[in-house]
From TrEMBL:
GO terms for molecular function: sialate O-acetylesterase activity. It comes from Zobellia galactanivorans (strain DSM 12802 / CCUG 47099 / CIP 106680 / NCIMB 13871 / Dsij). This is Sialate O-acetylesterase. Residues 1-21 form the signal peptide. Its EC number is 3.1.1.53. GO terms for biological process: carbohydrate metabolic process. The keyword Hydrolase applies. Keywords: Hydrolase, Signal. It is an enzyme of class 3 (hydrolase). Residues 107-354 form the Sialate O-acetylesterase domain.
């Protein structure tokens, strides 16, 4: 009986061990990929336990050696050069060799959020000038990786997808905002750009946030667990982080662009904390504070009063406390009867200008519209001060969408005058105004801009 017991025990041990007959790589490594330039990047994969893997990098003709651990995993850190390519990378083990071809070195950006980030040139109503944009989308130095949509209750080590060269055929089904962002960057930096698109239409921020955030914040956990099922997106906390983010956290990126918020408008009161915690958790997972640039959602005719403008104001306020972040305002390109504005060109352009100025120091122009700073009560009038207000102007005969309130907290429409890049407000209904709000409705499309032609964000001064 004893030999049989030993045999059974041995077989059970084997069944519990990961067995890899050949080297395997995660899907984020494939032909046509882009690696982050001038960085120490990670390469990793799986093979037999204890197997030695030889990695050869084409840009420096160097060989690196690494052994798999007891879990049959291996990981290697290598230095990348300045932008260039195409190169090859080979991975050789005892049983097989994998050679990745047409690899570029450049700038890699993660592009995430819900439907306005996922939206492509051929999605439903498409985008402005779609036919012409698709036709000219021949950019061999822009590479596209689309993460297949999937959920998971636990963090995954791999995800489906493959890198593709940007052509009219591949661009037309890729994120339009991300494509226009990359086209602008590539034109200005003259380096390869890699885009990882892992957006999911209708998704709330809770599903993109790892479990650790909810474990540490009971208020966020309670809010997340109250989400109701929808036909367009999963709502269980952390499911998309587990299935679509965790596996690529070892992959070096330059930064993230994000377009989301519509699905959180009913929980605008906790969104600021949730969003900040989500960004912080992603940075912790990657191991560094990469830039995080996001789009303030556009005006839209939501049925619920004020929820749309409330979430926009929360997004504005987060900008004041979230380091290494930036926000673009798109109230001037809104179509209040369409939650998916078709002008994705300007969204991508504004995000790119943010990155060019704040990440790459390659753009000297203004990248923000006027952002509320403070108010100064002046008896019967009140003065509003903005940051990024040089050349403050109204596109129209008079400034619109300002309201003031006195000690009773009741808001009334206000008469506005621009003086020295500030706005002076008054109302016959308010003898001594103390607070101001601007663009305060779901469908407000205000006409206040700065000299760079960028719109002012909605705000409330309370």
């Amino acid at each position: 009986m004893k030999p049989k017991f030993l045999i059974v025990a041995f077989l059970m041990t084997l069944a519990c061990q990961p067995l890899w007959a050949k080297i395997e790589l995660p899907h984020i490594f494939s032909d046509h990929m882009v690696l982050q330039r001038n960085e120490k990047v990670s390469l990793w994969g799986w093979a037999n336990t204890g197997e030695e893997i030889t990695v050869h990098t084409g840009w420096d003709n160097q060989e690196y050696h690494v052994k798999t651990n007891i879990e049959a995993k291996w990981k290697l850190e290598i230095d990348t050069p300045e932008a260039g390519g195409p190169y090859t990378i080979s991975f050789k083990g005892n049983e097989n060799e994998i050679v990745l071809k047409n690899v570029l070195i450049g700038e890699v950006w993660l592009c995430s959020g819900q439907s306005n980030m996922q939206w492509s040139a051929t999605t439903n109503a498409g985008i402005d000038n779609a036919e012409e944009e698709i036709k000219k989308a021949d950019y061999p130095n822009i590479r596209l990786f689309t993460v297949a949509r999937r959920t998971s209750n636990y963090p995954q080590d791999d995800l489906p997808g493959t890198w593709e060269v940007c052509t009219p055929e591949t661009m037309k089904t890729f994120s339009a905002v991300a494509y226009f962002f990359a086209r602008r960057l590539q034109g200005e930096l003259n380096v390869p750009i890699g885009l990882i698109d892992n957006a999911w239409g209708g998704s709330p921020a809770e599903v993109w946030t790892p479990r650790s955030v909810f474990d540490k914040n009971e208020d966020l956990k309670a809010s997340a667990e109250s989400l109701e099922e929808t036909p367009w997106s999963p709502v269980s906390p952390s499911q998309l982080y587990n299935g679509m983010v965790h596996a690529i956290t070892p992959f070096k990126i330059a930064g993230t662009i994000w377009y989301q918020g519509e699905s959180n408008r009913g929980r605008w009161d906790v969104y600021g904390k949730l969003f900040s915690e989500m960004v912080g958790s992603w940075r912790e997972a990657w191991g560094y504070d990469f830039p995080f640039y996001y789009v303030q959602i556009a005006p839209y005719n939501y049925k619920e009063a004020e929820q749309g403008v409330r979430i926009r104001d929360v997004q504005r306020r987060v900008l004041e406390t979230l380091p290494n972040s930036g926000m673009v305002v798109v109230s001037d390109i809104a179509t209040i009867d369409n939650i998916h504005p078709t002008n994705k060109q300007d969204v991508g352009l504004r995000l790119a200008n943010l990155a060019l100025k704040e990440t790459y120091q390659k753009y000297e122009g203004e990248v923000y519209g006027p952002l509320f700073k403070e108010v100064h009560p002046l008896g019967k009038k009140i003065e509003v001060v903005f940051d990024h207000a040089k050349g403050l102007m109204a596109k129209g005969k008079k400034v619109t969408h300002f309201e003031v309130a006195g000690a009773d907290g009741v808001y009334h429409p206000a008469k506005a005058a621009i003086k020295q890049d500030k706005v002076i407000l008054s109302s016959k209904m308010v003898k001594e105004p103390l607070n101001v709000r601007f663009g305060w409705s779901n469908i407000a499309e205000p006409n206040l801009f700065n000299g760079a032609g960028l719109p002012a964000s909605a705000f409330i001064s309370e």
